[in-house]
Design goal:
The structure is a single chain. By secondary structure, the chain is an alpha+beta fold. It is 35% helix and 38% strand. The protein contains three helices and seven strands; from the N terminus they run H-H-E-E-E-E-E-E-E-H. The protein has helices at 2-16, 23-53, 152-163, and strands spanning 55-64, 69-78, 81-89, 95-102, 109-114, 124-133, 138-147. A four-stranded antiparallel beta sheet has the order 4-3-6-7, with no helix packed on it.
């Protein structure tokens, strides 16, 4: 902790004496401070994700392959994690639950193929993961969005098949 206090004292001394810095030195100092703030923000985000979410999400993507929408995500540490709930909607304010995915453990890769996206009239979808830990605490991933263009033939065929189910 004393290292942090010394760093703060040094920064204050630099700020106090900034009137003596030339333009190049000032810009260099500001760039250094921006990097420091970014580093601290990343550490705090990582800590927050691990403590509240039960899982650190390395990435979460949604892509359209013309037939279906494929979701992929990878976790880092999974702490006390029970499951992921996949949410889908036409925008981030209208998400509905699609299904639950059981947690596999630390550093796992997950994927889900949304074969029902063509059955709606929407072509733009937003997905999110609801992260549920074993104590019932819930948090959410970031959003993944995708434009999904399905041919009229597939959409019609899908509607016909749904009539006979």
């Amino acid at each position: 902790m004393s290292g942090v206090n010394n760093r703060v004292k040094n920064d204050l001394l630099i700020i106090y004496s900034c009137r003596e810095l030339d333009n190049f030195q000032w810009k260099k100092y500001i760039a250094h401070m921006k990097k420091t703030k970014l580093f601290i923000s990343i550490i705090l985000f990582t800590f927050y994700s691990l403590v509240t979410a039960g899982a650190f999400i390395e990435y979460f993507t949604a892509t359209s392959n013309g037939e279906n929408i494929v979701l992929n995500w990878q976790t880092g540490r999974e702490t006390n994690l029970q499951k992921f709930v996949i949410l889908r909607g036409k925008d981030k304010n209208n998400l509905v639950e699609l299904l639950d995915v059981v947690a596999k453990g630390d550093f796992s890769t997950y994927n889900f193929v949304d074969e029902n996206a063509y059955k709606t009239s929407e072509s733009f979808y937003v997905y999110q993961l609801k992260i549920v830990d074993k104590d019932g605490n819930v948090s959410y991933s970031g959003y993944a969005s995708v434009t999904h263009n399905v041919s009229g033939v597939k959409r019609t065929w899908g509607s016909i098949k749904a009539l006979f189910r």
